[in-house]
Structure formats: structure tokens, C-alpha cells
Amino acid sequence: MVGEPTSDPETWLIVAECFGVQTPTFQGEGPSCGHPALFIRLSRCNLTCERCDTKYTWDWSHFDPRKESAKRSVTDLVAWAAPSPAELIVITGGEPLIQQRNLVALVRGLLAAGKRVEFETNGTIAPDPALLIDGVRFNVSPKLAIKPFVVV
Ligand code: SF4
């Protein structure tokens, strides 16, 4: 169980997009497949998979990071998600665990709002122990033929 802390107003994340509030969306991976969900897609990845379908989160030779991403506060993200009847929040990317230090506050805020959280990760970054708690699940999709990428 997570204790008191909710969200730190000073904490922010680099976000590519959030969706699922206005148009109902469903989780497409893992044990919650088919469940209504909101998605928070974080920008940046540590890999450069050729068949990536979210290159706008990291491929700055084809996309402009100033157009494809923005800083959003944890407070803002929790306020966006909290009123939705969807219980599940999927945090994806890119590779979301690049920003895991600031994700602890987001996860605490979402759990305090009655949500549960699933991370979609490429499995190359060990999760912070603060994220290994009830209400949080990791859907790991290992990638082959990886090329490390310098994150900017
Ligand atoms: S790990 Fe995922 S987001 Fe990152 S480059 Fe590969 S497919 Fe794209």
C-alpha cells in the first residue's frame, strides 16, 4: 500500500500525449487487455527499434521534440486522470522508465485517486523499488537487435 504522499507540484514529466478521456480507449496488452484505460505516453526512449510505431517520442531526425513533447506536472496529470471512470492508467512511451524518478510521484497520485497503473516497458531499465507496489504492474516487451540511443 502507498501512504500519504499524493503529488508533488514541482515534479514534471516529458509527455508525448495523453488520451482516453474523451474517446474511450482500451488496454491492448497484458493481463488487462480489453479493460477501459487512459494512456499517458511519455516522450524519449533509450532504444532505436527500426519498426517502432512511436518514433515521434525519440527520432529527432524526423520529428521535432519541441512539437512532439511537452513538460506536464504530476498535479496536472493526476487531475486529468482522476475524474475518469476508467480505473486503469497505462503509462507507456517511448520508454517510460527513463523518467522513473519523477514517476514515483505520479504513481502515488494516481493510486491515491483510486486508479491502478500499468507500465509498458522494453525491459532494459530496472524499476525503482518505489514503483514495485500494490496497484502497479509492468508489461514488459523485450526488444531484439537493440541499438542504444543517447537520450536528449
Ligand atoms: S523500445 Fe519501444 S518505444 Fe523504444 S524504440 Fe523500441 S519500439 Fe520504440
Question: What features would you describe in this structure?
Answer:
- It is globular and about 40 Å long.
- The protein has helices at residues 65-68, 74-81, 100-112, and strands at residues 12-19, 25-26, 36-42, 70-73, 88-92, 116-121, 136-140.
- 34% of the residues are buried.
- The longest helix has 13 residues, at 100-112.
- α2 (74-81) runs parallel beside α3.
- It is an alpha/beta fold.
- The protein has a single domain, classed as Alpha-Beta Barrel (TIM Barrel).
- β5 (88-92), α3 and β6 (116-121) form a beta-alpha-beta unit.
- Strands 1, 2, 3, 4, 5, 6 and 7 form a seven-stranded mixed sheet that branches.
- It binds iron/sulfur cluster (SF4).
> How many DSSP-defined strands?
7
Tally the helices. Answer: 3
Straight-line distance between termini? 34 Å
Which CATH first-tier class would you pick?
Answer: Alpha Beta
Query: Can you say what the CATH homologous superfamily is?
Result: Aldolase class I
H and E order: EEEHEHEHEE
Overall geometric form = globular
Architecture (CATH level 2) name: Alpha-Beta Barrel
Give the domain tally: 1
Provide the helix percentage. 10-25%
Classify the fold: give the CATH topology.
Answer: TIM Barrel
- What does the radius of gyration come to? 15 Å
Strand content: 15-25%
Task: Write down the overall mean pLDDT.
Answer: 91
**Ligand roster:** iron/sulfur cluster
**SS-based structural class?**
alpha/beta
Please describe the biggest sheet, giving its number of strands, its sense, and whether it closes into a barrel. Answer: 7 strands, mixed
- Unreliable parts: 1-7
